[in-house]
């Protein structure tokens, strides 16, 4: 059987995507004591170049709950720090592991690892794409709304890796995404074009707007992410100035549909992209969203690791 990788949401069909969300819901309901243990006798490597809280803990916990063993590898733990080629690393790890979860900067590096590895490679975050996060986001929306289709999401702020992946996830599931960001902070052009194409083919929509009020008007969910991602620290002050009008605050929530829910993929910089009031608001689903990383990643590993 040919191995499957998960580098972007485009690696899944629409049926596979919705099936994973449903399976994650079943796993959540069953709890950690579920009897299916598809990773028994298997080891999954976590090769992380970027620091992590939710991604590392949710993957390690999920691997354990599925009966497997996780092996955490930072760059200083492996020979990459001494110049070993990524291709050699991929080939060697394929002899030991059943899957490799990678959190890194360059999307090109994870594509190279996937080409050279004979085991599934899972994108736990690159500068271009964060598909595991969107699996959890879609699960959270479905838990709250009971469905994905016809849901309106307003995303405020930087058109970053989360925004790129959200474009694809919303398009595939007949949702309506309004992404509000200032000029110069648009999502990746290839992801935007693909999102619009997918949305048009299934009956959803994707828009990039400059006006946050227009994006939020009547939305069922308002979503934001940090303004300065890892590796962009030198741009932080400029980003704060440029993105200040896109803060998720009480004004933005009032423009949304009654009962609209608040999303953030965390970590949050309170007082920048989101206010403390919105983090603690009764309509916040932020920590449900964080929990669902565990369940969707378990479903993903069950699907990929054979």
C-alpha end-to-end distance: 9 Å
Query: N-to-C SSE series?
Result: HEHEHEHEHEHEHEHEHHEHH
CATH homologous superfamily grouping of the largest domain: Aspartate/ornithine carbamoyltransferase
Question: Helix content range of the residues, please?
Answer: 40-55%
Question: Helices and strands: which structural class?
Answer: alpha/beta
Any idea how many domains? 2
How many β strands by DSSP? 9
Top CATH class of the largest domain? Alpha Beta
Q: Under CATH, the topology of the largest domain is which?
A: Rossmann fold
CATH architecture of the largest domain: 3-Layer(aba) Sandwich
Summarize the structure.
By secondary structure, this protein is of the alpha/beta class. Helix content is 43%, strand content 14%.
């Amino acid at each position: 059987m040919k191995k499957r990788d998960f580098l972007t949401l485009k690696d899944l069909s629409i049926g596979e995507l919705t099936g994973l969300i449903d399976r994650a819901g079943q796993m959540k309901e069953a709890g950690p004591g579920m009897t299916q243990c598809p990773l028994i006798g298997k080891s999954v490597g976590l090769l992380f170049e970027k620091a992590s809280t939710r991604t590392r803990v949710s993957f390690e916990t999920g691997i354990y709950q599925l009966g497997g063993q996780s092996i955490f590898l930072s760059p200083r733990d492996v020979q990459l720090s001494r110049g070993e080629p990524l291709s050699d690393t991929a080939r060697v790890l394929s002899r030991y592991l059943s899957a490799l979860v990678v959190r890194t900067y360059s999307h090109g590096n994870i594509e190279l690892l996937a080409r050279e590895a004979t085991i599934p490679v899972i994108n736990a975050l690159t500068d271009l794409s964060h598909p595991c996060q969107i699996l959890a986001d879609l699960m959270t929306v479905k838990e709250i709304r009971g469905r994905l289709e016809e849901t309106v999401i307003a995303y405020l702020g930087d058109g970053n890796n989360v925004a790129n992946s959200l474009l694809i996830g919303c398009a595939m599931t007949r949702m309506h995404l309004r992404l509000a960001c200032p000029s110069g902070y648009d999502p990746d052009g290839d992801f935007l074009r693909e999102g619009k194409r997918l949305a048009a083919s299934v009956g959803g929509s994707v828009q990039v707007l400059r006006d946050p009020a227009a994006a939020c008007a009547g939305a069922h969910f308002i979503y934001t992410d940090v303004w300065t991602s890892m590796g962009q620290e030198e741009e932080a002050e400029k980003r704060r100035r440029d993105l200040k009008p896109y803060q998720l605050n009480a004004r933005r929530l009032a423009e949304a549909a009654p009962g609209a829910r608040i999303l953030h993929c965390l970590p949050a910089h309170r007082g920048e992209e989101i206010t403390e009031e919105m983090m603690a608001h009764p309509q916040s689903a932020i920590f449900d969203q964080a929990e669902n990383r565990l369940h969707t990643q378990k479903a993903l590993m069950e699907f990929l690791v054979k």
